[in-house]
């Protein structure tokens, strides 16, 4: 949907109004995220399968001296090594984070430009040139650490302007319309996203904590049975422990616990900015208020909170 005058002199600005370079990097980030998570999930599952197969009765044989449990364990562990090799060759995790950073950086700069946020609020004539320079400078820094600029290999992306018609139309609107559009389509959207993310992380934490606790309790119970010679399969508690460890590793990899704290804090900061923008921020204060809001929603700020407040 493009920017357009609406009821009550409002306007609408959506992700579809952002440049093609954003859409490509966002798509790549989502694909690489799924790939990286898929590799990690498969490796953890194979480790659990390998541990579980090791406790199967050794009497299970495939013929001669070839024992089925050992073969299953060997295949599972070999699969873990193969997936690890493929993951390192593909670099899915690093490309996920680099493309996500690029996409969010482009999106942030687009919003700053479109609503006169700093540094695009001063009167120099070539604000478009300043915007392009800031975009290119930021992407150049990402390229130094491994980000792959699609414009070098995809002419259809390189030919697209970094300033869309919708961005120019929103930039041309008076302060009141720009403020209303930014608060509704950027600030509130981000605030709702962080709220949903924190809630999803809380539910996931409860689910995985319950699973880890249940598996550990079963392992404890079976270990006690084995201690008093009531169980002849000492490997079962070990398999349950491996499953519990897999659940714990998955939960830690998904960073549910630290993200609850980080996303909740970002939501609180955005709520404060929302109140300020609605009630007290003037036209003169607007550029710095937009700049501060974009700083709050940046991936770097969220990562810092996750590391130091989690």
Strand order of the largest sheet: 1-2
Order of helices and strands: HEEHHHHHHHHHH
* Biggest sheet character: 2 strands, antiparallel
Question: So how many helices?
Answer: 11
Q: How large is the radius of gyration? A: 26 Å
The N- to C-terminal Cα distance equals 38 Å
What average pLDDT do the residues reach? 89
Pick out the low-confidence regions: 1-8
Tell me the strand percentage band. Answer: under 5%
Q: Number of DSSP strands?
A: 2
Backbone structural class: mainly alpha
**Could you say which overall geometry the principal axes of the C-alpha atoms support?**
elongated
What percentage of residues falls in helices of 4 or more residues? over 70%
How would you describe the overall organization of this protein?
This protein has 310 residues and is mostly helical. The protein has eleven helices and two strands; from the N terminus they run αββαααααααααα. Helix 1 (20-53) packs antiparallel against helix 8 (235-254) and helix 9 packs across helix 11 (299-309). It is elongated, with a radius of gyration of 26 Å. Mean pLDDT is 89; it is low at 1-8.
